[in-house]
Design a protein that fits this description.
mainly alpha, 4-stranded mixed sheet, 4 strands, about 65% helix, elongated, BTB/POZ_dom
Length: about 500
């Protein structure tokens, strides 16, 4: 026995197999090339070490059995993937001929056999060989699923088959499951759990083929969320990111009505924690933004990124609203979003870390025509000024300018005239201050009854316009100061550059 075993082969450090050099080299081109580089052991045997043999010792033993049986070994669907990859590595031509012949009969494989082949492709190290096999197996899997869902197609395929008792549909498909698939009911279709064996890479390929075959978009959407939910339990961080990016890319091309809107916010919260690809994140934001009229306030209250000091992710909501407004929307939809944004503004206004520029962006986000009232905006600005007592007059003016006097109630108009936070905005123009005090004194003398109520409202309107003039005046003064400083620096710079005309 020892005389026949003159070759040692170390397979990936897992196992050392003793072989007859003459027998194995008769079939393996790889070993014939390597024996010249091999080393002798202490007992005089040759030794070859493989560190990257696909499938490990199990696959290597398949090839050695083939060689020891003088090429008499049956290749079947359950071992064709392992056989093919091992034979490719060992350059055993006769095995490759049999594996290719077996793959040509893939349309007659059962559903279970195709899934097993895909699972074996995943277990082997990634290579061009396994990728090409996986592509053929995946195409067969989707084809079988497609025919199972469409009985008319399956009968046509059977009629065209050369064998009347073709095994095309020898897999676990029952009529009840198919019916639930077509109805789109809450029951999980039979194939959802079986396809969970696919890794994130093959999962993406599977989805692309489903879309290419015009599968029902609602079913694809349901499968996406089911796969994500189940696989996330045991997936690594990188696998979670890959699954999520595939999910978003696929949802983006599906019919919008087939994607549950609330599920998108679940995906969003996961995506924010995984730092997914920016282009993929943009797709998710567009999907949410385009249907913003379906959102609730709770949906929008997304916590800010970890490095941010403010409480809520305001930039995200700004992008949602811009995506919504960039699409042609009905007036009722815009008004609904306007009410939602106003609620959001009121929610974030007390945040002491929210910058005035961000708050102003929220106030000016929605067209003024979409707001029938500015009551909520006034209260939000009031809360913001309360939480940000250190704002400059210019910052306060920018915020207050977003208010429309005509869209405030009489109660709010009266309140704003007494609101110290708003009255703190002043200009050094003494004449304007005197006009303001005069109007206030006239207002106090008017009795609020009968026809005088209209006069009272009229005076309040005049007071509001005076305040607007004050703001405009302050803005002009600030601009003039900037112009003066710029002019002085320009003159000084030009004087330095003038050449001396006299010596």
């Amino acid at each position: 026995m020892e005389a026949c075993s003159d070759l040692q082969v170390d397979i990936n450090g897992e196992e050392t197999i003793f072989l007859n050099k003459k027998i194995i080299c008769k079939f393996s081109g790889t070993l014939r090339k390597l024996l010249g580089k091999s080393t002798y052991t202490s007992n005089g045997n040759l030794k070859v070490i493989f560190n990257d043999f696909p499938g490990g010792a199990e696959c290597f033993e398949l090839v050695t059995r083939f060689c020891y049986n003088n090429g008499q070994f049956t290749v079947v669907p359950s071992n064709v993937v392992l056989f093919h990859c091992a034979a490719k590595f060992m350059e055993v031509t006769k095995v490759l001929e049999q594996t290719e012949k077996c793959m040509e009969e893939i349309r007659y494989w059962t559903w279970s056999e195709v899934l097993l082949g895909l699972k074996q492709c995943q277990e082997l190290e990634t290579s061009s060989d396994t990728d090409s096999l996986a592509a053929k197996l995946m195409d067969a899997l989707v084809e079988k699923l497609c025919l199972a869902i469409e009985p008319s197609l399956s009968s046509a395929a059977s009629a065209c088959s050369p064998s009347p008792d073709s095994s095309l549909f020898r897999f676990s498909c029952d009529s009840k499951s198919t019916a639930s698939f077509k109805n789109g009911s809450s029951r999980i279709p039979w194939w959802f759990d079986e396809v969970l064996v696919l890794n994130p890479g093959l999962f993406a390929t599977f989805l692309k083929l489903m879309i290419a075959r015009k599968f029902d978009n609602l079913t694809i959407s349901r499968f996406l969320f089911y796969y994500q939910k189940v696989k996330f339990c045991s997936a690594s961080c990188n696998e979670k990111r890959e699954i999520l990016e595939t999910t978003i890319d696929t949802l983006y091309v599906l019919d919008r009505s087939c994607v549950p809107y609330k599920n998108l916010f679940g995906v969003l919260r996961l995506a924010l924690g995984l730092n997914i690809n920016k282009s993929v994140m943009n797709k998710l934001e567009l999907m949410i933004g385009h249907q913003l009229d379906q959102a609730t306030l709770d949906n929008l209250l997304v916590p800010s990124p970890l490095k941010s000091s403010h409480l809520y992710h305001v930039n995200l909501v700004l992008r949602f609203a811009k995506a919504f407004l960039n699409e042609a929307k009905r007036g009722s939809q815009v008004k609904k979003v306007a009410r939602l944004v106003d609620q959001y503004i009121a929610e974030v206004a007390p945040d002491p870390f929210l910058k005035p520029s961000k708050f102003l962006s929220l106030l000016t986000l929605i067209p003024d025509s979409a707001r029938e009232s500015h009551e909520d905006i006034y209260r939000a600005i009031d809360m913001y000024l309360e939480a940000h007592a250190g704002l400059t007059n210019g910052e306060k003016l920018n915020l207050i300018r977003t208010l429309s006097y005509e869209k405030l109630s009489a109660e709010s108009r009266a309140h704003i005239s007494r609101n110290t936070k708003f009255q703190a905005i002043h200009t050094p123009n003494v004449q304007q201050q005197q006009q303001k005090q005069l109007i206030l004194r006239v207002e106090e003398k008017v009795e609020v009854s009968g026809d005088n109520e209209k006069l009272k409202e009229h005076i309040q309107g005049i007071q509001w316009r005076v305040m607007e003039l004050e703001r405009a005046c302050l803005k002009m003064q600030n601009q003039m100061e900037v112009i003066k400083k710029t002019s002085k620096s320009t003159i000084r710079g030009s004087n330095r550059s003038l050449p001396k005309l006299c010596s």
